[in-house]
């Protein structure tokens, strides 16, 4: 049985040349764990392992102090002798506010070790669609999203982190806001990459068949031709309206969603945030059942070594993990779930369609891109768009109170 995908304190001593006896063990473990070809991703995986192991040795504070919201943990590695194939010769890794994010993970019901396995046991998937600036990664078990952000957004995060933390504590983690779980800086060849880790709005097991990015604005809010030809296009407000799409949920669920939405948008107004979206994913249960039947028919044609190949690629469970495959892994011990079934503790943004709805569907709804403040640049953009489209046009760049009100009205209309 191989060792778990963590960098142990004894392994870390390989960094000191006098402890040569430990180096061999360190190399074996690292080769097994890190297989990412992108040096930034490799350093991220190494850093997550290192930081979670370090944090596990630090007592949880009785209460968070103002200094915890300014703190950071840094490590610089130069000319190391381990895992040269996958890690650059020199790199730096910085974790922002480790105690705060550990506390947030706890409020969101995410165990640190499971977080570590989900992000570092096997390389995350990279978004190759190229429609975004910067890295966009999904953890190999599809429970987490890692998004590259700008240094300005890092400052924005610092400015709202205390209020965000307090809000999450007050609402007991019941929110449509992004579940912010960690923030890092990776430095390779003197270039800084800032990364924000969040829970995935979409499911780790139920396929999304249609998705929308909704702002409640109709000006320039239509998917381009280039977007439409993708396997899973991101449609927008105009597309949503044109297809007469609705979200069919029960009255009870509708009340819960609107209550969360009202509280969350009021918080964003207080933070002077605007330009955020509702990310909506739709899982078609009937289509999923059909796809499952087709997969079962093809099962006999699979190559006999395919399962072994998964092991070879680092996808086998970590033997000492509390949940064998990270955040979603513990579900393997339960009976298999059928089409349209989900665990609300893992798929926290999921809502079942109402009984008697036109289609059996599962909806995934969460707020995204919430770090845009209504600053001078946005005010100028609002003025320019108002001149172009007219003062009454539903443009997306409006002041936070107006944005939140219009956004809530739009979401209320789409809930059947």
Automatic annotation (TrEMBL):
Q: Where is the sequence biased in composition, kind Acidic residues?
A: 291-313
Query: Where does the UniProt entry say this protein principally localizes?
Result: cytoplasm
Name the segments for region: Disordered: 288-328
Q: Name one GO cellular component term.
A: endoplasmic reticulum
The protein's matches in Pfam families, at most eight in alphabetical order, are given as: PIP5K
Q: What class of enzyme is it?
A: transferase
Q: Which domain of life is it from?
A: Eukaryota
Q: Which residues form the PIPK domain?
A: 36-415
Q: Which GO terms describe its biological process?
A: phosphatidylinositol phosphate biosynthetic process
Please list the reactions this protein catalyses: 1,2-dihexadecanoyl-sn-glycero-3-phospho-(1D-myo-inositol-5-phosphate) + GTP = 1,2-dihexadecanoyl-sn-glycero-3-phospho-(1D-myo-inositol-4,5-bisphosphate) + GDP + H(+); a 1,2-diacyl-sn-glycero-3-phospho-(1D-myo-inositol-5-phosphate) + ATP = a 1,2-diacyl-sn-glycero-3-phospho-(1D-myo-inositol-4,5-bisphosphate) + ADP + H(+); 1,2-dihexadecanoyl-sn-glycero-3-phospho-(1D-myo-inositol-5-phosphate) + ATP = 1,2-dihexadecanoyl-sn-glycero-3-phospho-(1D-myo-inositol-4,5-bisphosphate) + ADP + H(+)
EC annotation?
A: 2.7.1.149
InterPro entries in alphabetical order? PInositol-4-P-4/5-kinase_core (IPR002498), PInositol-4/5-P-5/4-kinase (IPR023610)
| GO MF annotations, alphabetized | 1-phosphatidylinositol-4-phosphate 5-kinase activity; 1-phosphatidylinositol-5-phosphate 4-kinase activity; ATP binding
Entry's localization field: Cytoplasm; Endoplasmic reticulum
What UniProt keywords are attached to this protein's entry?
A: ATP-binding, Cytoplasm, Endoplasmic reticulum, Kinase, Lipid metabolism, Nucleotide-binding, Transferase
Q: Can you say what this protein is called?
A: Phosphatidylinositol 5-phosphate 4-kinase type-2 gamma
